[in-house]
Amino acid sequence: MLGLNYTSVSEFILIGFSTFRKHLLPAFFLLFLRMYLFTLLGNLPITAAIWTSATLHMPMYLFLCALSISEVLYTFAIIPRMLADLLSTHHTISLMACASQMFFTFTFGLTHSFLLTIMGYDRYVAICHPLRYNVLMSPRDCAWLVAWSWAGGSVMGLVVTSAIFYLTFCGPNMIHHFFYHMPPLTAHLEQVA
């Protein structure tokens, strides 16, 4: 029950990298920027090659293209904010921005997991049922599997994020992490008796 002396958390302070010396933060920025750019440079050409080449319009490559897109979007949900926090002196984020980052992180992460599961099923069908592969993994069915992976990731991301942000946050608003995710936030949930 909310008392008279009650304050809720409206923003969080991310202190993941603040324990390091200030002169190391630009080096971390360059390191994480290089890793982010390598992720983009590794996945975007894969997507472009599969998209433009008609000979690669097969189930395995469709799944690989969707996997590359989900990986690019997953890193895009986390890394730019982390890079900005490395160079900034102001590390606060509003509750709504935290919720949106968490939603996109869960959505793209779960979509990535669903796509990996479908890719495993695709290889199972190709190895164990090679003569029926074209029937079991038709282009239409593969497109549906990819669409259901994205829909499932979005629904699960929405369910998990809304379940967490439906509750009330209290206590100190400092998060000892470098991005906003469920375990660091659950420490700040109000204890209900």
Automatic annotation (TrEMBL):
Protein name: Olfactory receptor 10H2-like
Membrane-spanning intervals of the chain: 24-46, 58-79, 99-121, 142-167
GO molecular function: G protein-coupled receptor activity; olfactory receptor activity
Compartments reported by the entry: Cell membrane
Organism superkingdom: Eukaryota
Gene: LOC102985201
PROSITE patterns xref list: G_PROTEIN_RECEP_F1_2
Organism: Physeter macrocephalus
Classification of source organism: Eukaryota, Metazoa, Chordata, Craniata, Vertebrata
Pfam families in the cross-refs: 7tm_4
Function: Putative odorant or sperm cell receptor.
InterPro entries for the chain: GPCR_Rhodpsn, GPCR_Rhodpsn_7TM, Olfact_rcpt, Olfactory_GPCR
Main localisation: membrane
Domain G-protein coupled receptors family 1 profile span(s) in chain numbering: 42-193
Keywords: Cell membrane, G-protein coupled receptor, Membrane, Olfaction, Receptor, Sensory transduction, Transducer, Transmembrane, Transmembrane helix
Entry GO CC: plasma membrane
Bilayer disposition of the protein: Multi-pass membrane protein
